[in-house]
Amino acid sequence: MSGRTHTGACPERTCVGCRKRAAKTDLLRIVAVEGACVPDHRGTLPGRGAYVHPALVCLDQAVRRRVFTRALRAPGALDTKALRHYVEQTTVADQAAVADQVTP
User: Which residues are the signal sequence here (predicted)?
Assistant: First the structure.
């Protein structure tokens, strides 16, 4: 035997908000489209992408440090309103799902 494991390798990315590495599937890909940051939950939009945890804490850190402009190599400031709305909706839906699982 070669000593290699046969488990599939899971690609990792770095969150631009908290700068921690995580599995690609746990992060949300962000793409710049017409001067705005757009969530790419399927990972199929063309262009350069940046990854962030789908949590308001990480999103706020990234916005405060103006990371998206650098990471996406955008010529100017990017609008993050649509991204914030998406993360807020995702967070509310996740909390509702957890509450349904906990309640008997």
Answer: none
72 closest CA partner among 25, 94, 104, 40: 40
Q: Which of 3, 29, 32 is nearest to 16 (CA)?
A: 29
Distance of CA 38 to the CA centre of its chain: 10
Contact 17/68 with Cβ under 8 angstroms? no
Amino acid 94: pLDDT: 74
Q: What is the pLDDT of residues 8-25, one digit of tens each?
A: 788 999 999 999 999 999
Phi-psi region of 61 (alpha: psi -120 to 50; beta: other; left: phi over 0): alpha
Q: How far apart are CA 48 and CA 63, in angstroms?
A: 18
Query: What is the arithmetic mean of pLDDT over 62-90?
Result: 93
CA distances from 50 to 10, 53, 99 (A): 18, 10, 30
Whether the CB-CB separation of 31 and 82 falls below 8 Å is answered with: no
